[in-house]
Amino acid sequence: MSVEMIGEYFENYGAIAIFVIVLLEYLNLPGFPAGVIMPLAGLWAANGKLSFLLTMLVSVSAGLVGSWILYFFGRFGGKAFLKAYVKKFPKQQKAIDRNFEMIRQKGCMGIFISKLIPIVRTLIPIPAGVLQIDFLKYTISSTLGIFVWNFFFVGAGYVLGEKVFELF
Question: pTM for this one?
């Protein structure tokens, strides 16, 4: 998905487009890189299309909904999925075990920190669901991590504007 295409979606569908595209990115679907989506949403806000506050609210809400979907996937189907996954990719067992152990040891702080690490941030909801981390605690730590991540990238687009996209 190109920057121009995302910009067209934002232009045509406004906050709904931001919500859907950010939701898909938080579901870890290929083609939706946060490094492009979030700054573009910030640029859109800087150009007066939406307020920065509304852009943040929409992007954090979308990220949280995506995280909830994966959390409940982990909670209600994750064990069977992981069993099949490890059977097919046995070398991944160590990485999966490390993620589970980190969540067991660090709890909600581990979830918060994971939300700040590329790729891990969109995968951590599944083991959190499998481990049945308290949903309210999971939601709070996820929301804080999503807010920090989105604030950094949306803020970069808002403050730096067109200069950010000259890199692409």
Answer: 0.84
